[in-house]
């Protein structure tokens, strides 16, 4: 049985899109007959033992915390994580190392793979230099941006195989000179076993939030600038003019929360905009039950054009109608008029028109829901897609197996 040791920035019990994708991968690989474990780096901030079992998955932690000036601190992180991977591998004996972005994990995986003499798969979920721009931590072309990009390129060059979560990232790597046959795609996905019959509308929660009986436009997630929630708020007066009973429900929090609240309070549609704050993960389905349409108005940028988000897929799997801006990451997931609606990015009036059109065509919702769920089942179900990993691993392990067989035959 093939053993795979995953190398991660952080993991459960922390909750993030990163940890949920990891959980889905590990669970699907276990169901596919692989043995899996994971090692997290020093940025995993949850307290816990050095070896932790969560939901039947085993995580090894890298002890300590890196210190020092920028650059030296990150290199110490890489070395500490590489040492933790090697220590775990010497006991558990994995056949393959599978590192997941950021590049620090890829570089740690590369050091460990060379020490252990096992192949390395490096998986890119986003280019972290672009994510830092999207989060407002730096700007494109800065020294930090260029260093992060160079480290990414180094990890990609050293890995035996590279996986990306979407075509946009793959095409960008090819443009950098990476061989196309070295790069596979493992799309963002969902565990359809987690999504049964959607909950009926939670009338008590709707009353508590004063949403009324009209349609609700929802967003559940992190409030980053690139999510475009300011455009969604700016679209509300026009939407209310066409659909007076419509309401906007924003669930979550993040760097833009205060600015968004100020914007909403100054809006002519302030009465129709509701902030629910952050909610416990086990309560999220109740909030989804209130939403007629889930809106994802991402702004256009390198990050949003190259990377496919997870939230629209989860909404489609739960039978929710999805409306999203037409950035590249959304176009990979949604067919306009078939599995959801797309509208021009960075354009609040266009967003309002698309939402109003969806709300006026409720008779089409069953068809859209069915098409969206079928699309997710065919293209984004982890139980099906996880077999792509097995093909990659077997391709990397085959030369070593053939060499062993030839040696044994002598």
UniProtKB/TrEMBL annotation:
Q: What is the lineage of its organism?
A: Bacteria, Pseudomonadati, Pseudomonadota, Alphaproteobacteria, Sphingomonadales
Q: What is this protein called in UniProt?
A: Glycosyltransferase, exosortase A system-associated
Under the heading Pfam families, the entry gives: Glyco_trans_1_4, Glyco_trans_4_4
Tell me the organism. Answer: Croceibacterium soli
Q: What SUPFAM superfamilies would the database entry show?
A: UDP-Glycosyltransferase/glycogen phosphorylase
Q: Which PANTHER family match?
A: SULFOQUINOVOSYL TRANSFERASE SQD2 (PTHR45947)
Tell me where in this chain the Glycosyltransferase subfamily 4-like N-terminal domain is found.
Answer: 17-189
InterPro entries the record matches: Glyco_trans_4-like_N, Glycosyltransferase_grp1, PEP-CTERM/XrtA_GlycosylTrfase
**Membrane-spanning regions, if any?**
none
**Keywords per UniProt:** Transferase
């Amino acid at each position: 049985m093939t053993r795979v040791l995953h190398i991660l920035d952080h993991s459960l019990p922390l909750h993030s899109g990163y940890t949920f994708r990891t959980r889905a991968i590990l669970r699907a690989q276990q169901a596919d007959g692989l043995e899996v474990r994971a090692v997290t780096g020093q940025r995993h901030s949850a307290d816990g033992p050095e070896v932790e079992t969560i939901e039947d998955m085993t995580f090894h932690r890298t002890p300590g915390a890196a210190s020092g000036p920028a650059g030296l601190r990150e290199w110490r992180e890489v070395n500490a994580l590489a040492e933790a991977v090697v220590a775990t591998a010497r006991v558990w004996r994995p056949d393959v190392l599978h590192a997941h972005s950021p590049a620090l994990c890829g570089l740690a995986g590369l050091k460990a793979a060379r020490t252990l003499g096992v192949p390395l798969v490096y998986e890119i979920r986003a280019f972290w230099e672009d994510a830092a721009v999207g989060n407002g931590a730096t700007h494109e072309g800065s020294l930090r941006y260029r260093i992060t990009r160079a480290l990414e390129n180094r990890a990609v060059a050293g890995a035996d195989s590279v996986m990306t979560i979407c075509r946009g990232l793959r095409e960008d790597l090819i443009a950098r000179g990476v061989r196309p046959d070295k790069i596979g795609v493992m799309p963002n996905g969902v565990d359809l076993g987690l999504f049964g019959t959607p909950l009926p509308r939670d009338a008590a929660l709707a009353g508590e939030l004063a949403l009324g009986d009209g349609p609700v436009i929802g967003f559940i997630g992190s409030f980053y600038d690139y999510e475009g929630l300011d455009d969604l708020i700016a679209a509300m007066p026009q939407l209310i003019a066409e659909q007076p009973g419509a309401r906007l429900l924003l669930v979550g929090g993040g760097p833009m929360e205060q600015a968004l609240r100020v914007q909403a309070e100054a809006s002519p549609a302030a009465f129709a905009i509701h902030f629910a704050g952050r909610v416990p993960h086990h309560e999220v389905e109740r909030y989804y039950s209130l939403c007629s349409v889930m809106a994802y108005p991402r702004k256009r940028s390198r990050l949003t054009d190259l990377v496919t988000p997870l939230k629209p897929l989860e909404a489609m799997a739960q039978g929710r109608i999805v409306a999203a801006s037409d950035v590249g990451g959304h176009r990979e997931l949604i067919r306009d008029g078939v599995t959801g609606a797309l509208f021009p990015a960075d354009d609040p009036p266009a967003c309002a028109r698309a939402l109003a059109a969806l709300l006026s065509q409720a008779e089409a919702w069953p068809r859209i829901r069915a098409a969206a769920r079928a699309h997710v089942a065919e293209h984004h179900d982890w139980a099906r897609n996880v077999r792509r990993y097995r093909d990659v691993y077997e391709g990397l392990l085959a030369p070593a197996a053939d060499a062993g067989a030839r040696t044994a035959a002598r």
